[in-house]
């Protein structure tokens, strides 16, 4: 007996009200706020993703007999030099090392920390990987070990060093509706965000101890009423949230800019405290 077929229509997800084409006054204000909310350039976001990522998917043109000529993906560790060029240490035992020696054209794909769905950011950078001479080994080794201090294996005799040269540019997706092609020039001119490295502990503290304050800030600065709000990450210009407007509804991303840029961890604390106090002061008294 064949199993019952579930209706596709019955599984259709509910669209959050904030995506309405004919919004009420509150939603219209929120939509306008999000259109003008300060955020890093997509090139800066891409460079930041590369600086934070602990691994990437390396896509090569396979030189192996079983997959000759087909695209092939491998998970690799990598570091990034001051110019944004990815550095790879790969073993000759790994098929992708032979792929890169035969044809250096490749791409690296990274995702935002904690990536869970297509709402989350990812970036693919394309270029040509070049095997480095012994004269550059010490410099790239130092850069790689600064990120992976326990990577003793890079000194094994079967490891080779590669760097992505002739960068062609990349494709950034920051979530639904935030898509951009980034030129090689813009990527290499961009800088990683100085605050993003503190996102984990700051967001963790706010989510654990100050959800009420986060909700108050959302209401005060965007005009949006919500029942749940979680800080996802932050940068020098503000932070990103996952918000639920009503119980049982789909959640969605919200951008909340700082009232002024924050260039270090203390400045982040100061501006969040200032914004929290302003939101509390504006909230109706119960």
UniProtKB/TrEMBL annotation:
Signal peptide: none annotated. InterPro entries: CREG_beta-barrel, DUF2470, Haem_oxidase_HugZ-like_sf, Split_barrel_FMN-bd. This is Uncharacterized protein. Residues 201-275 form the DUF2470 domain. SUPFAM superfamilies: FMN-binding split barrel (SSF50475). Residues 41-188 form the CREG-like beta-barrel domain. One of its GO terms (cellular component) is cytoplasm. Pfam families: CREG_beta-barrel, DUF2470.
